[in-house]
Write the structure tokens for this entry.
Amino acid sequence: MPTAVHFGAGNIGRGFIGLLLREAGYDVIFSDVNATLIGMLNSTPSYRVIEAGAGGTEKTVTGYRGIDSSADPDALVAAIASADVVTTAVGPNVLRFVAPAITAGILARPVSAGPLAVMACENALGATALLRDEVLKHAPAEEVGVRAVFANTAVDRIVPEQSTDSLDVTVEPYCEWAVESTPFGSAVPDIPGAHFVPDLAPYIERKLFTVNTGHATTAYHGRLAGHATIAAALGDAAVRAKVEDVLGETAEFLVAKHDFPAAEQQAYLQKTLERFSNPAIDDSVERVGRQPIRKLSRHERFVGPAAEIAAAGGSATALLGAMAAALRFDAPGDEEAVKLQAMLRDGTDIVADVMGLTPDDDLYEGAVAAVASVRASL
């Protein structure tokens, strides 16, 4: 039976990627630094994935084990060396921390074993490419290249915050895992739950600039309007109008850039709003809005599409409004939110240092005005 090592045994790891790998027939080894969570995995023979909402089902997951990467790094390296697939769901900022173990496992792998399939399943553009760059900081490219194949992915499933007392995970019924097929040549991994495509860029950008942009926009405008959950925020006509305006801008951009049929993109947009409105997924605006500095960075869900729209002569007014709302995300429990508020108060050049924009960018003046409006309200 094939084996997969998955970094990140949290809710997304168990309720999405780990689930699809098990359904594909892989023995799944979860790696995490949370000793309590690993202990629960190793002492519990099964857990449930509960799809909440219309059309949802309940699935039981078995055939897994856990490795505490801090306590037993040698076992982790050995597992990677003999695995068929390595995946991650740890967050883009954590990839550099898991890269050394992945590198060691790749180097310990016999060339005769065939290449290891490495896929970072993160909410970011080119996350696997980023992981590969981190791996190559620790090993020669020629050694890595004969032992591993790196493929970018686009992942989509809403998994809200929930109790850590159980391994059971509540998720939405919808999920999508798209993987670029080209790096694998004719040896594409057998994962029926994943969708392998020759050109991933349109899928990544459609998901990032519709689902992630819309989700974050709902969180930031919703929080300013006093709502605690995403569903409640979308139930507010004023907030929903702002979200629809943002997604109208990104939809026009996506149709023009990637030749998506306009009706198809509109249907995707409406499906996305339906998913956000799922009353069975009590997703908090605090969770969805966290890490605003990353979400406001140059190639992320706001500045990325807005900069391209502005460069093409289009309007990014709604996106700039969402960026201003993100700047107002004053959440004491989120480290990035606290840091961002301090940067706003101390005069840091937010447009350059956070958004990565220069005066040569067509979006620059609009971004400067958005930051100035926020600072004026402090």
Residues 202-377 form a domain with the N-(1-d-carboxylethyl)-l-norvaline Dehydrogenase; domain 2 fold (CATH 1.10.1040.10).
